[in-house]
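Teaching assistant's notes for section 4

Start the section by putting this record on the projector. Ask students to predict, before seeing the second block, whether site-specific DNA-methyltransferase (adenine-specific) will look compact or extended. Collect guesses on the board.
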Amino acid sequence: MIDLRKQDHLGVTSSSKDGDIHNKDAFLFLGNCPAHRYEAIITDPPYEIGIAGKDWDCKKLRIDVLAYQFHRVLKPGGNVFVFCSDFQFGDWYRELSRYFTRLRKYAWCKPDSRGTNKGMFQESFELGLHVCSENAYFDMEDRYKNYVVAGKTSGNERMMPDPDEEWSTKKGEKTLHPTQKKLSVIETLVTALSKKGDTILDPFAGTGTLGVAAKNLGRKFEMVEYGFRNHIAAWDRILGEE
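Reveal the predicted structure now:
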């Protein structure tokens, strides 16, 4: 019997009343996507740093292509938020500034981040970039001046492989997805950058945190995830919220 969890890619789509998850290549999906489809894009693409030796995080990311496609599929007045590594930040800023007039840095502070670096300071933040046009929507019912978003990077929220699966004990491989974001962080972004009923795209969905946040907050979602195991995990999370 074939264990579908170990299949790299099957090209399926899982659909619900709240949104869809596509097991597809993000670049191909974006290339075939109609223009002006989404009110917001909130995503966490690969960082290109080879974390835990993962192949998907070692390949060169075509940030120029993604910036163009994000602008093309976004509705006028929409928002884009991208998590990125520090050495990617300049590329994201340069490419997105070709299409958007407002760009703001964002730092997710992680005071409870785990691990030690002997002889070094502990790195405890991740960068993000919020871009939009002059007339973009922003939640004015809450105030975000000097706003600090902090939270653990691991713990009960991190998804584990199924009990009968073999998994590594290497750094970054003790959970199903090594860079899963905290739900409250994504919910903050969803609230700030979209209205109820809006549709949000995440073309690098991982284990589906954006979909859970969107559903919790009355938004629609469309997510793309190439890894079939992550696709299953994301869909299980969405069904678990029913």
